[in-house]
């Protein structure tokens, strides 16, 4: 794999509460050694403290781009696309395009989240001069690992912001705790506000509605 490339990853797609965050990071050959020395790896293997530290380092050192799709915007776009993979493809290409504007780069790599042709076909419509690779577990590549760290750091930050705003602790993931919080939120704040904090197409929404009947 070409070492000088843009890695792309996302965070929040499996979380009921909080935004969808997509990040792109360009890693040039001379940066790999210093990023390795800092301890850059897939964000799933890192502690929250390490993610915070590394996100700050990556932001300072590397060309990068972020898309933070808050819940209200996410729900509006989902109503239009009716497909999470289409939203992911759109988001991946948006951050790729933004990063390419910071400097020419011929190669990009993302995790394979759907039919590979979906992202490739969208890429053709943008007329971008870049070869895009997709593969499972792409986070083993340092550029994608960097993107995974930036995406996770910003997802957690945004989730903390809405927790502070509503004076509630919104759980990560999509579990029984998410359902319990959705019920509590609708009782205390109101169902009309749910689109500001949650991804409404998740099954949790229907489970919550059934529980409140």
Question: Please, could you describe this protein's structure?
Answer:
There is one protein chain. The chain has a five-stranded mixed sheet with strand order 3-2-1-4-5. The chain contains eight helices and five strands. The chain has 213 residues and is of the alpha/beta class. The model has no long low-confidence stretch (mean pLDDT 93). It is globular, with a radius of gyration of 18 Å. Helix 2 packs across helix 6 and helix 4 crosses helix 5. Helix 5 links the parallel strand 4 and strand 5.
- The level of helicity is 40-55%
Structural class: alpha/beta
Largest sheet: 5 strands, mixed
Q: Provide the spatial order of strands within the biggest beta sheet.
A: 3-2-1-4-5
Order of helices and strands: EEHHEHHEHEHHH
Which regions have little confidence, pLDDT < 50, spanning 5+ residues?
none
Q: Indicate the overall shape.
A: globular
What's the total helix number?
8
* Strand content bin: 5-15%
Mean pLDDT: 93
Please give the alpha-carbon distance between the first and last residues.
54 Å
